[in-house]
Amino acid sequence: MTPRAFESTLAAESTDAQNNNVAAAAAAAQNTVMYPYFVNRTRFQSLPVYLDIKNGKTRKLTLVRRIDGDINAIHKELSSHLKDATVQIKSISNQLVIKGDRSKEVREWLTKKGF
Q1: Partners of residue 18 on adjacent β-strands
Q2: 94 vs 63: CA distance, rounded Å
Q3: Burial class (CB in 10 A: 0-12, 13-18, 19+), 60
């Protein structure tokens, strides 16, 4: 008889949790902002922002990969956010290349955007 009581409490808790998740999802849907681009996360759920070091460790480049949608829109917004950085588009691979080690700033910016 005790397992039945345990199952019923679990079922009641899971129903409450599902109701809370539905309410949270509905609230999140109302606060959703639509962008003309999307930055997919990696399979380990990290942002695809990488530091590339070239020329005998003297040249540092920040790469943003896995961009879907309008790459020109994200280029324009990221260029305005990083005022003094040079941002280039690699249109064949849908990547952005930023001169310098700006990976931390780019990750923070993408996180604020909700990616």
Answers
A1: none
A2: 11
A3: middle
Burial 42-54 (b: 16+ CB within 10 A, else e): eeeeebbbeeeee
pLDDT tens digits, 44-69: 999 999 999 999 999 999 999 999 99
Separation CA 8–CA 58 (nearest Å): 64
Q: Are 62 and 100 in contact (CB under 8 A)?
A: yes
Maximum distance among all Cα pairs of the chain, rounded to whole angstroms: 72
Mean pLDDT computed over 27-37: 74
Amino acid at 88: Q
Burial class (CB in 10 A: 0-12, 13-18, 19+), 107: middle
> Three-state SS string across 77-96, please?
HHHHHCCCCCEEEECCCCEE
